[in-house]
Design goal:
2 domains; 4-stranded parallel β-sheet; 45% helix; 387 residues; Rossmann fold
């Protein structure tokens, strides 16, 4: 990959090369949460609690908003008081009925999967929460059938109207609803703390911060020219890894593999002996000095914050040992490693740390490669051919 590294240290040139406003959209993440909370309140999201806790929850999200379902199920975990499932499109499970809640998320309000699931849920009399553009077909389905629609309007830049750049606008109403129903802990105080964390990261990763002190720019430079393997060491970091792979593909046009420990340890380390790993003659090369021959793997390791309790539980200790073993195996195999660790806090705060880092890194990587972070001609062609 040909990279204009000098561009990354020229804030004015970065902004000029980003006419869609992708960097500004990412920097607005904290503001997205605050605006979305207000929008959810004004939409009457509390109406979803009138009939008490639902029997089950189905989340319909895909594309740039697919991570919404992943975050909700991650927060609910094995302790969720009701079953939760994620669907990308029809059919809606046959058991869904008036006692259940269906959540459909689409920035445009036109994505066939969420729209079709919402329409079928409404037909069956299920409770319905939709999040997306006002006046869209998704909004119409919800309002016509007594559901709650939370409008999302990207403002300021073209990028702010793209689902992957408006993650927190789409996610926040769903979290607020789940908290009101007693399914997860995502109170307004928690979401305010997440917004503050995102503001802090936006300042840290800002365009005017030079690469040697800007972790997002540094990560972009490390990933450039490699085949990234993004690995999370647990539930929170696994969701962050999925988001990172999606952003690298759609924003920087870089294919990447993702995994989460402990389940994917074997799949990940197996790649260390494949065609993109170090060749036998490379094993004694210094990965920080010697240039690799050809495209090589880069392990991007996303680590969760160390538990603040005095005696971490056994599951965390086991996963931590596996993570350390994977890193040691990578280093011995000559695979270069980038590592980022979340700061302590609520799971959403920790997720925000890592998502913000990899989001900014993907955009910086795209801009330095002179790629439009927002628009892919091949995605546009695919959309035209499948209409």
């Amino acid at each position: 990959m040909d990279l204009d590294e000098q561009l990354l240290d020229d804030a004015d040139a970065l902004v000029a090369s980003d006419p869609s406003g992708s960097l500004r959209a990412l920097a607005s993440a904290g503001a997205q949460i605050r605006s979305a909370l207000n929008a959810a309140t004004e939409a009457g999201i509390v109406r979803l609690t009138t009939d008490g806790r639902p029997r089950a929850v189905v989340v319909a999200s895909l594309g740039g908003s697919a991570v919404v379902g992943d975050v909700l199920t991650m927060l609910a975990g094995s302790g969720s008081p009701v079953p939760m499932s994620v669907r990308r499109g029809l059919p809606l499970p046959g058991w869904v009925g008036p006692m259940d809640l269906v959540v459909a998320v689409s920035m445009s309000g036109r994505a066939p999967g969420p729209l079709g699931l919402a329409a079928e849920a409404a037909r069956r009399g299920a409770r319905l929460l939709t999040v997306g553009a006002p006046g869209s077909p998704l909004a119409e389905v919800s309002t016509r059938t007594g559901g709650v629609h939370v409008p999302v309007t990207g403002a300021g830049t073209r990028a702010s109207r793209a689902s992957r750049m408006a993650l927190w606008s789409l996610l926040t109403p769903v979290l607020a609803a789940a908290d009101a129903l007693g399914l997860i802990n995502a109170s307004s105080a928690v979401l305010a703390a997440v917004a503050e964390r995102l503001d802090l990261r936006a300042s840290e990763f800002r365009p005017s911060s030079e690469a040697f002190v800007n972790p997002a720019k540094a990560l972009a430079l490390e990933i450039a020219g490699s085949v990234p393997v993004v690995l999370g060491d647990g539930d929170v970091t696994g969701v962050a890894a999925s988001r990172a792979v999606s952003m690298l593909a759609r924003t920087a046009r870089i294919p990447a593999m993702r995994g989460a420990l402990p389940d994917d340890a074997g799949d990940v380390v197996a790649t260390f002996g494949g065609p993109f790993a170090a060749k036998p003659g490379d094993l004694f090369a210094d990965p920080d000095i010697d240039e690799p021959v050809g495209t090589r793997l880069r392990l991007v390791f996303l680590r969760d914050a160390v538990p603040t309790v005095d005696r971490p539980d056994g599951a965390w200790l086991e996963t931590s040992r596996t993570a350390d073993a994977v890193r040691a195996t990578a280093e011995e195999a000559g695979v270069r490693v980038s590592e980022a660790t979340a700061e302590p806090g609520h799971p959403l705060e920790r997720l925000a740390d890592l998502v913000s880092l990899t989001d900014f890194a993907a955009v910086y990587l795209a801009l330095a490669a002179r790629v439009d972070p927002l628009t892919s001609p091949h995605v546009a062609d695919l959309r035209d051919r499948t209409r």
